[in-house]
Amino acid sequence: MTRKDPRPTEEPHPPVPVLLDGSQLTVDQLTTLAREPVVVAPDPAALDHAHRSWETAVRIAARQPIYGRTTGVGGNRDTSVSDGVEQDLRLLRSHATGSGPSLPDHVVRAAMIIRVNQILNGGSGLHPDIVTALIDAVAEDELPAVHARGAIGTGDLSAFSEIALGLMGETPLRDSRVVPRWTAHQGDALPLISTNAMTVALAATATDSVANWLEHSLIVGVLSLLATRSSVEPFAARVQAARRHLGQEEVAGRVRELLADHDIQAARVQDSYGFRALPQILGATWQALQRLRGTLAIEMNSSSENPLISVEDDTVFHNGNFHGMPIALAVDEAKLALSSAALLSQCRLANLSDPAVTGLRPFLADGPAGSSGTMLLEYTTSAAIAEIRMAAAPGSLGHTVISRGTEDHASFASQAATQLTDILAQSRIVLACELISAVRALGQQHRDLDTDTELGAYLHRARTCLDPRTTDRPLSDDLKAAVKFLEQLPNPEKDTAR
């Protein structure tokens, strides 16, 4: 007979909600929150401000026209509407017109969290019960299905219309359930959808992966440096101090840190740009990424509302805060920077294929004379670089005139953010080719790095996920494994501790 434990069973503690106040959400915090269903809560003072914003909007609408609240939208801006919430419902239903694949859950979740934070910043004029609806949907993993295409960088109108219909129970959620949890109030439609929150979410979640790729690229570059017997002179602190770009100095310092416990024997006076300019190119890319994150942080904690409801002035301002040009330019810069960093990896791959550089056989071949070894990896990188080059074209160069000429400029920030994710995917393929070659070259040189060092541990983890055979064979599975390896944290123990 089992003896009953006399101690009372402890009830599990409910999760402590993360407080949003409309002004302090960071990109790091957002990407962490968006990974899984999460409990967030509004700061009481910020929620009160949002409530007063709604009251102010209702009061102003009773005495003067407000775009989208007492009028139609776009080319219908001069058309008065007087049928209350029915106009809002028509607006949401007509604007819920997206195309393409569904956005992943973490992006939709991030967008909903951003929108809550923006509403709490004040200025939207939305009824505050939308805050509760968005927060509860995120916490209970009841995410609307949202198409990836439809925005042009002047507000994510279609995406947030689809979110609105999902919250209202008019359309099924991602898991096919129908869960009504919100009822639109008169005047709610345009304020809810007049936001770039989905574009910001897409770009913000991509920045985490780009940062991860950059760290992998630096470490793989150092492995290639060892395999090609390249010089460490370009990474000297004195060299970096002569130019003083912060990103460049940080990258060079990181290279010195990785190489500190390893024997370096340079075979040449000077190496190709793939090694010599690594701090300059990766450093500039890192700085571009930080500038993008700064722009996104501003967007997440701002009122990008049109019209803007001012509680303090008891008035409304019709404006262009919805325009995504600051986002588009920042994303375009990050795209170009990442593209150059990927090109640098392709340059190092060429060095790894050259017997004059490695002291090994052409294309790291192993077997009868004429064996091709890693030759096709150069084709693979060239194909990926071609895709990168097309995606790197600035989205901000796009142009359109729509809605009977009333909307005659667009940033195409949404397209830029999508292109950034495309470039990242192709950059992983390029870096995977370099990783496979660097690991093979070090193996053929019988270089076994101490696994107690960060670089040695990284090399060991990479080797365990790759096929050790070096005779001619298909490398597709190696590529797949290497890409998966590059999607993970480069130093799990270090990053977990951090």
Briefly, what is this?
With 498 residues, the protein is mainly alpha-helical. It has helices at residues 27-33, 44-61, 85-95, 105-120, 129-139, 157-168, 189-193, 197-227, 237-241, 246-259, 273-276, 278-300, 325-352, 355-358, 375-391, 413-444, 454-465, 476-487, 492-497; strands spanning 18-20, 40-42, 99-102, 147-149, 308-310, 315-317. The chain starts with 17 loop residues before the first strand and ends with a helix.
Structural commentary:
The chain is mostly helical. The chain is 54% helix and 4% strand. The chain has a two-stranded parallel ribbon with strand order 1-2. Strands 3-4 form a two-stranded antiparallel ribbon. Helix 8 (197-227) runs antiparallel to helix 12 (278-300). The radius of gyration is 27 Å and the shape is elongated. The relative contact order is 0.11. Mean pLDDT is 92; it is low at 1-9.
Strand content: under 5%
Uncertain regions spanning at least 5 consecutive residues: 1-9
- The total of beta strands comes to 6
Give the neighbour order of strands across the main sheet: 1-2
Largest sheet: 2 strands, parallel
Could you report the average pLDDT, rounded to the nearest whole number?
A: 92
How many H/I helical runs? 19
Helix-strand pattern: EHEHHEHHEHHHHHHHEEHHHHHHH
* Straight-line distance between termini: 48 Å
Into which percent range does the helicity of residues fall?
Answer: 40-55%
* Large-scale geometry: elongated
- Tell me the radius of gyration: 27 Å
Briefly note the structural class of the backbone.
Answer: mainly alpha
Protein name: Aromatic amino acid lyase
GO molecular function, one term: lyase activity
Region (Disordered): 1-20
Keywords: Lyase
